[in-house]
């Protein structure tokens, strides 16, 4: 479970996230939506310990990110919104490095690397430097690295960006399977159709504040039944 309690993050001249409270239960795929600059990535960076929290508290499966950062980070798998990392490493070097960080045993990592890279169609590029990869391939290698230690909670920032249709389908199926196991998937996206197809619950954030929180049934109760998520999203985020 992800428990976000009254978090605030301020930068010079701007409050990026203001008094945000969310709870994401186990076994759920949770969609996090908002226009550019709404505070999505800032929230995710606080959830993953990249940015300190100015006020409030974030706990993940009972561990406090501020007080128990290493313990908490062991429980999460994080796909950032940018995949241009460790470009001078070969694909296999990067995956082994991530496996070392998370103490994945040798035999388990070999099997996981084989299965994951075949699922995303990059098994033949593992001896190439990531610098030579296309954007989509870089995204795939990052996703493979994130899933190597089988984290309980997936935190994915625009994870489908750059993926080809087959790989996008594969990742969405993995997200569904992860939730079916009683674990948690939290992801931000601009692809509203994916949210309608995939998510159990949705939060819409705008100007750092929560505009909507609930499932699709609740959304339909609050808005006209014939309105799709795009119309709701535009209505909620059109004001400044």
Automatic annotation (TrEMBL):
Please, which domain of life does this record's source organism belong to?
Answer: Bacteria
Q: In its keyword annotation, does this UniProt entry include Phosphoprotein?
A: no
Name the Gene3D superfamilies on file: P-loop containing nucleotide triphosphate hydrolases
Q: Which keywords annotate this record?
A: ATP-binding, Nucleotide-binding, Transport
Q: Name one Pfam family in it.
A: ABC_tran
* UniProt-recorded Gene Ontology molecular function terms: ATP binding; ATP hydrolysis activity
Q: Could you tell me which residue ranges the ABC transporter domain spans?
A: 2-232
SUPFAM superfamilies linked to this entry: P-loop containing nucleoside triphosphate hydrolases (SSF52540)
Q: What is this protein called?
A: ABC transporter ATP-binding protein
């Amino acid at each position: 479970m992800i428990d976000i309690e009254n978090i605030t993050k301020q930068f010079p001249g701007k409050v990026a996230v203001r008094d945000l409270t969310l709870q994401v239960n186990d076994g759920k795929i949770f969609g996090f939506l908002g226009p550019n600059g709404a505070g999505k990535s800032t929230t995710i960076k606080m959830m993953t310990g990249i940015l300190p929290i100015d006020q409030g508290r974030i706990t993940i499966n009972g561990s406090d990110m501020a007080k128990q950062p290493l313990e908490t980070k062991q429980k999460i798998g994080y796909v950032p919104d940018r995949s241009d990392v460790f470009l001078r490493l070969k694909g296999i070097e990067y995956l082994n490095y991530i496996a070392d960080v998370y103490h994945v045993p040798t035999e388990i990592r070999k099997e996981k690397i084989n299965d994951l890279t075949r699922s995303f169609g990059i098994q033949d590029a593992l001896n190439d430097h990531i610098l030579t990869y296309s954007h989509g391939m870089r995204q795939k290698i990052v996703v493979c690295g994130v899933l190597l230690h089988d984290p309980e909670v997936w935190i994915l920032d625009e994870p489908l960006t750059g993926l080809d249709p087959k790989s996008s389908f594969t990742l969405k199926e993995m997200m569904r399977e992860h939730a079916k196991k009683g674990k948690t998937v939290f992801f931000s996206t601009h692809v509203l159709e994916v949210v309608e197809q995939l998510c159990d619950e949705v939060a819409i954030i705008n100007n750092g504040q929560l505009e909507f929180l609930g499932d699709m049934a609740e959304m339909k109760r609050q808005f006209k039944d014939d309105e799709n998520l795009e119309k709701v999203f535009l209505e909620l985020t059109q004001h400044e």
